[in-house]
Structure formats: structure tokens, C-alpha cells
Amino acid sequence: MSYKTKDIRNVVLLGHSGSGKTTFAETMLYESKATSRRGSIDEKNTISDFTNIEMERGNSIFSTLMNVKWKDSKINIIDTPGFDDFVGEIVSSLKVADTGVMLLNAKSGVEVGSEIIWEYVNNYQTPAIIVINKMDHEKSDYETTLEQAKNRFGRKVIPVQYPLNQGDGFDTIVDALRMTMYVFPADGGKPLKQAIPESEMNRAQEMHNQLVEAAAENDETLMEKFFDSGALNEDELASGLRIALAKQEIFPVFCCSAHRNMGSGRIMGFINDICPSPADRPPAKLADGGTLSCEANEATSLFVYKTLSEPRIGNVTYFKVYSGKVKPGDELFNADTRDSERISQIYVANGKNRTSTDELCAGDIGVTLKIKETKTNQTLNTKGLERKIEPMEFPNSRIRVAVNPPSKQDMEKLMKALYQIADEDPTLIIDQNKELKQTLLHGQGQLHLDITKYRIDKVNNIQMEFERPRISYRETITKAATDHYRHKKQSGGSGQFGEVHMRIEPWYEGMADPAGLNVRKREVEELPWGGKFEFLWCIVGGSIDAKYINAIKKGVLQKMTEGPLTGSYCQNIRVSICDGKMHPVDSNDMAFMLASSAVFRSAFQNAAPQLLEPIYELEILCSDDVMGDVMGDLQTRRAMIMGMGAEGHYQKIIAKVPLKELYRYSSTLRSLTQGRAKFNRAFSEYMAVTPDLQHELTQTYKSSLQEA
Ligand SMILES: Nc1nc2c(ncn2[C@@H]2O[C@H](COP(=O)(O)OP(=O)(O)OP(=O)(O)O)[C@@H](O)[C@H]2O)c(=O)[nH]1
Ligand SMILES: [Mg+2]
């Protein structure tokens, strides 16, 4: 049976790791009778964390699609991992969700993970509700958590509920929207509805009024009604809240204990009554700047937000129907590859359990198998349409490591396995780096890479090794130097002869031509590895024939790919060929190429060469109490602090740090701050290394050449 667009609710569970998302999903499934027993993290039997690795770790790693029926609605629930390492799963889930459910842990308040995720919620402009979980925990503190949420997420955070008796004895919630009190049986489930006691009436009424005001604020007729009569009836209140929520003008706050199964029913009721259906959201953005309304009667467009490869099954493709309907047997066309894809079966999913269905309408989320070519971020359309849903953008990687197969013969197998994971995980980037002669993996954190390694081990039976990645240094010069070199060889018959006189100097924008030289030809090149190379041909009187220009330039460029200091790429250099000699019989391209390589090398050594290292800009967000540790650690990493300041109740540090000093930074930061800090990084620039480091790196390179 298929659900109409207006009856679909797509919610994504979000929040710092350990806030209870997976447990909350489990209670939603149980309360809605989608399951008949409630699993738990400790017993490793939740519907959402069904993969071996999730069970082993007790954390979510992948986003999981589930669905329940509650009153009139089909609620699609996507549980996401809280660890920042798996941010890709959050980005893709938010893309297809219409409401975010942000869980906060009542015993620790607004944690840094929630804060980062909130930024994504804002970017996607997703309507959101907040659920303060773990009300039963002995250290739970609803008021502080609510206060922090208001501070951090703004004044639109407005409570709907509060616990009457938080902590171990928790069983009662006062609901200021319904003006009812819910009292739960000891083992949770359906609560008794009771009148709010006199002692709580003032607080409840005050909260209720705040909700009424928020509901009236965004609709003129409701506003008038509110001013005239000082109240709104239940329908008016609901309609006002619906508008306010859809416009992100209110972030209502609920409370619950997922562990004791208290409170999820009321939240599902709110999702059914107030949260937007896919049709209530603004039309989806298309890649070409156009938009697409969520209309079941229009031509079909599906967007693939995630794929997963399951043993014995193959490709499992998760999609949202953005327009039209999809049925088994439909033939659709990939707007990127133009391939045709036949949709065999379509399913709704509860974790690994899939139930086939005969139709999914616009707005719904489902699964299909055996899709051949279509990948994450691609759109499938009815024939003749070129629609592309605006693709998702994933954050820059924050960590890199070099990988080695257990033996050389396994390399091909390893690459195949890695590319398969990267297909499913857009935040894992494989870089077969020619410059460094290493295969690098770029990811979101140590855990992200460790889990990749674990998967390759368990699924593909390849024990890859991680190794410290090399650094892409650059070499340049800081003063001018002139030198010459004669390449001469007499071997049997014809010999080789070429003599080149060269001046080299640091290149910079707008520099004057070299004094005393007559520039006949000028070539300026943007080097593929960054920086510039200017080549001046200043030969007068035909001491070298112009037909050797290319060979001479090639000789220099060849040396520039293997700098004299450390074998790294050279950049920002101007070379002037000022004189030379040739031989009527023995001169040829090869001889001049060798001569120019050799003279470039020796001139470079005399031109005060300077090694440059890549510098990254780090943006670190941490809580006050760990700020000192974070700064202290940065000092040991040759960091330049560019800025510091409060951001909400967190501190933000911006620093420039050499890439060399960032090895394993993500794990150090996590253990240094017990997870109370997050960071992003982006390449900033190349900067000169210190003389000591230059000496050390040059010596290491020299000895490696001797060994080779
Ligand atoms: N006391 C108490 N514990 C809870 C509650 N909800 C969850 N927990 C426990 O908190 C721990 C983390 O719960 P999860 O559901 O795995 O949290 P999560 O948000 O899914 O975590 P990640 O998947 O790592 O992002 C587990 O040990 C749960 O049993 C609650 O309401 N009360
Ligand atoms: Mg989880």
C-alpha cells in the first residue's frame, strides 16, 4: 500500500554520540507496533545498529532507514551516527529529511557534536524539534539543558513539555501544548492522561501562552484572533505551529526517556499533527538552478542519497521520490550517465528488514536492489527528463593516511575494495599520489579510517597497513644565481655536445626583465603542482640554435619535478638562457636537455634554495574547560594562532599549522578533550620551513639517495 504525500513525514534523528538516537528509534518502532520487542544497545539487538561493527562498538556508524505508522502518517525515520567522523551520513540524511529531531542528553547538556550538527540543520533550513532525552538518569538536568539549547540555538527554542520528577523516579511529563499531564507505568509505554496539578498550573500556563504567541506570530488571521480574544482554539494553535515550524520560527522542545520507553508516543503524535509533509516544504532545488515541487501526479524523479553493498545481495540503493510515483518494473533514466535503469522491486525498510511494496509516492523514501550504475547524488527520471536534483556537498577531509597492502600482489584487490567503500561513502577519498609515491586515504577522522580498515579486513579479508603519509614539500630559491654547464661525450662515432649558460632567480608577479639580457622569447607557465615557471630565451648571435629551445626548457622542467633539496616539485622560478655553445655535428636535443638539467641543478644550489611546506588552516571548536589543553597542544605543533573568540558557549580557535604536525591530530584532540572539541581544516598556503628542518629533510633525502 502506498501513502499519499500529505501523509508522509520524513524525520532524521540527530545529536551528539550517546544522546540516545538509536534507543529512541527503537522505542518509536516498539510504540507504533512496528516491532514486538524492544532491543537495546547493551544487548546489541536494535533494529538500527544492525551491522556487526555497530553491534561490536555500541555506536551507530551508518545511517539507517526505518518507518512506522502513527495515526494517519507514515513516519520515515533515519537514525544517524553522532560521531563527527561519519558526518557524510548526516549530510545525506538531512538532504532527504523534512524534519530534524535533535536529541540532547539531559545529563550533559548541549554537547559539541550537537552544536556542529545544528549548523547543518541551519544550512539545510530543515524544520527541527528538540528532544531532551535521558530524563530518568540520576544526573539529568532538564533546566540547564534547555537553557543551553536556548543560548546556543536561539530564542526560537520554546519548550512544549517539562519533566515533573526527573532522575531515577522519572515517570511524569507536563505537556503545555495539550495542557495535560502524562504519567507513565513503570515499564513505560502508553501514559495515563491526568489534569495538571494546581501546583504546576502557573508554570504550564506560562509555557502554553508562549506557544500560543509563537503560533500566532506567523499568521495574520491568527494574530488578529489572538489579540481579539486572547486565545486560540486547538485547531488554530496547531495550524499556527505548523506554519512556524515549517519556517524554522520555532524549535519546540520535548522530553523523554528512550531507555524507559517514556515519551516517544507524544512526539510521534506531534510529528503526525504538526511536522511538515514533503509537500509542505519549499520545492527542491535542481542543479541547473530550477526547482521541483513534490507532486505525485507529475513525471517521476528519484534521488539516490545513499548506497550500500550487502553480502550476497549486492547494491542496495536508498532513494527519495522527489516527484511522481515509482512502481516495480518502471524504467527510469539516469540524468548524469543517461543509462537506463530498470527498477525491479521496491521496498520500505526497517534496518536490514525490507518489505516489498507496490508503489511509493512523491515525498516517500524507499530502497531498491540490483540497480546497475546509478550512484549516490544521481537522479533517475521518467524517460525524456533531464532533471538533476541539486547534489549534496560533503565537507573537506580532515585526516589522511598512507595505506599499504599486506603484500604487493594484494594491491589490486585492496584498491578494488577501497573504491567500493568510497562509492558508498563520499567522504572517503582515495588518492593514488604519484608525487608522494603513496596511496593515501583522506577521511573525516581517525575513527572513520579505522572503520574503513576494519571493513576491508572483515569483508574483503585484506589486512591493510596504515603508514605515515609523506608530505608534499615544494622547493624554491631566494636569490639569483648564474652558472653554466657543458655536456660533452665522445663515444665511438658521433658524440654529444651542448653547453648552456643560465641565470635563475625567484619569480614574482610583475618582476622586471633581467638587466643586461635581451629577451627574445618568453613563456610563463602555471605549474600543475602550484606556483609559476617563467622561461626566457635570451640568446643573441646564434650561440645556440633556436631549434633547441624546447629541449632546453624540457631539461629544466624535468629537474623541477625532482628538486635538488628533497626531490620535491620546484616552483616560482624564472630561468633565463643567456649564452651557450653548440657543435655542428654532435649537438642534439638530448645533449642540450642534459646540459640544461645539470646547469639548473647547480645554479639552484647557489641560489639560496628554500624548502616550503604545506600549511593548513584549522578551525577548532571546543568547550571552555578544555581550551587550555587545546592551546597547549597547538603550541607543540608550530601553530600560528590567527584568532580566538567565543562562539555560543564554545570557544573557537583559528590557527595555521604545518601539515607535518597534524599527523593523528583528530585522535589527539579527541582524547585530549574527551570528545569536547571538533575541528575542520583546509589547505591554506606553502610557507618556508625553518633552517633546521630544511637541513634535516635535505640530509634524509641525501641518505635515501645513497641507499637506493
Ligand atoms: N539512562 C538512560 N540511558 C539511555 C537513554 N537513552 C539511551 N541511553 C543509553 O545511552 C547509550 C547510548 O545510546 P544510543 O541510543 O546508542 O545513542 P546514539 O545517540 O544512538 O549514539 P551514536 O549512535 O553513537 O550516535 C546506551 O547505553 C543507551 O542504553 C535514556 O533515556 N536513559
Ligand atoms: Mg546510534
How would you describe this protein?
With 708 residues, the chain is an alpha+beta fold. It has five domains: 220 residues, Rossmann fold (3-Layer(aba) Sandwich), CATH 3.40.50; 98 residues, Elongation Factor Tu (Ef-tu), domain 3 (Beta Barrel), CATH 2.40.30; 68 residues, 2-Layer Sandwich (Alpha-Beta Plaits), CATH 3.30.70.870; 133 residues, Ribosomal Protein S5, domain 2, CATH 3.30.230; 82 residues, Alpha-Beta Plaits, CATH 3.30.70. It contains 16 helices and 38 strands. Bound molecules: guanosine-5'-triphosphate and magnesium ion. Magnesium ion binds next to helix 1. Magnesium ion (MG) binds next to helix 1.
Can you tag this structure with a few keywords?
single chain; about 700 residues; alpha+beta; Elongation Factor Tu (Ef-tu), domain 3; Alpha-Beta Plaits; 5 domains; 7-stranded mixed sheet; 16 helices; elongated; binds guanosine-5'-triphosphate; binds magnesium ion
